[in-house]
Specification:
Radius of gyration of chain A: 22 Å
CATH architecture of chain B: Orthogonal Bundle
Strand content of chain A: under 5%
Number of helices of chain B: 4
Order of helices and strands of chain B: HHHH
Helix content of chain B: 55-70%
Structural class of chain B: mainly alpha
Distance between the termini of chain B: 65 Å
Order of helices and strands of chain A: HHEEHHHHHHHHHHHHHHHHHHHH
Distance between the termini of chain A: 41 Å
Shape of chain A: globular
CATH class of chain B: Mainly Alpha
Shape of chain B: elongated
Radius of gyration of chain B: 21 Å
Number of strands of chain A: 2
Number of domains of chain B: 1
Number of strands of chain B: 0
Structural class of chain A: mainly alpha
Helix content of chain A: over 70%
CATH topology of chain B: Helix Hairpins
Oligomer: heterodimer
Strand order of the largest sheet of chain A: 1-2
Largest sheet of chain B: none
Number of helices of chain A: 22
Amino acid sequence: MLYLYVLAPILVGLLAYILRRNQSASFVLVLFQALDTLAVVGLFWQVRQTGTIVNNIGGWPDGMAITLYVDQLAAAMLLMTSILFLFFILFSYKQNYFTAQFFFLFMVLQGLLNGLFLTNDLFNIFVLLEVSTVTVSVLIMFNKEKQAIYDGMIYFFVNVIGSAFLLFGIGFIYKTFGLLDIRAIGQSMELVENSRAVIIPYALMFTTLSLKTAVMPLFSWLPKAHGTPSAPPVVSAFLSGLYIKIGVYLSIRFSDMFGSAIDMQNFFFVLGFFTSVIGFVLALSQKDIKLILAYHTVSQVGLIIVALNMDSEIAFWGGVYHIFNHALFKSALFLTAGLIYNVYGTRNVYEIRGVMRKMPLVGVATLFAILGITGAPFFNGSLSKYMIAHGTNSPVVAAMLNLINLGTITSFVKYSTMLFGRDTGKEANLDRYSQWSALGLGIMSLLTGVFGRQTIRLLFDYSLTVSQAEYFQKGVVYFVMIAAAVLLYRGPVKNSKLLNKAGAIEFTFNGTITAVALYLVGLLGCLLITV
Amino acid sequence: MEFITAETVSVLIFFIGLYGLMTQKNIIKTIMSLSIMESGVYLFFITTNLSENSTPPIGEGDPALFADPVPQALMITAIVIGIGVTAIGLTMFVHYKQKYGITNWTRKVADPSRTSDDERSAP
């Protein structure tokens, strides 16, 4: 019955589309999201009790045809998706862009996302990625504004071209193995005598995934897509909170599949680190609040990639937990940024002041999310960063992680200046649903921090022991970092001409594609050296 | 060993398409290059593991000679997706061109005299 998780959101979206925009359509959507969350919790519980569930569609023997597959990781991802979609629908419930076209496409995306987390078939992944690219780009240009159409087109073409690499890679895999099922290929991979036989599909498929996760040379499409000025805030929140995680999730699955033949952990570790650094440097150079958040997604995804490729169990689960946490606080930040833009009529971080006074609920939600993302004590970010930092004994790596965190804190010191000070906006007229759903996400990032150990045990069946003394020490380090970040921000960062110049650099479309081609060549070169 | 096989040709077509995407600033040419790139992939798929004397897997025949139907089924789907993608890309392009008179990625207005006409005729 797993296919229902893919099919039901699309059918309900269609039903709501037929009902058009009126009370019943909104009611159906909210009701469905609540039921869906319950159903996913049920599925999650079942997976916890009985282990992985495999569902062969069409009744073929295992490994022959399309299979849907849920293990602990996939179930946790499904849970994340359904919880966030509940908040998203509540957020946009009363907004003026919540039209029939919008919520139909949005619900379709939920189905596609569930499909991507569940499916175990390579070609199916390609189809779902392609369809979701189309849907996302339509949502980006939903307001048909000039910049939005351009950004949507860049997003669309770059990602479609990226998927062509994936399809080509699948072709090579099929030629070698005659299989499309990820687990079956993983088993056959052990029989490959010469690992060089699979480096071409590896390079092609990971080029697509690196594009989807926006690692270093390939991130230039992401701020455009996630930070499009006129895109509805809930679309930006969806893209940064959930959709970017597809690439990370698939790279976990694909690394597993190639695991017995190719191991490129060092390569992705270094790449993740550079991505993270470049992400926060560019975030520091931006003035537009949505662009600050978008570049920050690059940085945080870099951190997740670092954690996943550290070759230690605690750091791996820390990375996975960070996927979950990042979904919570980054969605909260994008949703509040949308509300703030509505009230102040500007996205310039230097012109917005006094959010806390004008919109206390939104201000508190933003503050909670900021505390979460910077890793303040008792918030969820601190726990996942603690786990990631535990994955290494090397002082160099620890210093690298601290550098990433310092960059994060500095850019959020800049971001949080808009919370305080004298009020500059016009009269606030906000609906309750949006404010409370943004605040709900903020509160969740506090709750998953306070009850972090229980959450981790519940979600991933991994028992974490936190040493009180060390956690306290991390808390002290956090406050020292904040002081350093404020000094950094007041001093060199705020007035740096170099940073302003770095912020103005824009990759052209052709430049992006050239970067993709060069990345493919570079990855192949690294594979030839190491394998 | 024969050099011009379906595999080498398809890899060549794929990279010709990629070259077009890297160098062409015109959006229409981007869409064309994308189609070329995808047709390279289609060719690669349907000729994988294909032996010389195989028969189509339809109707009566010797099952041992049947060509592998899976890649062909996959490529039908991929071609349909490719058509959809091309159509959506063209729709976006036409919309962008008609509204703002821009036909390339550098966002320079292609023909100034023409667009000012468009603006005048627009309501």
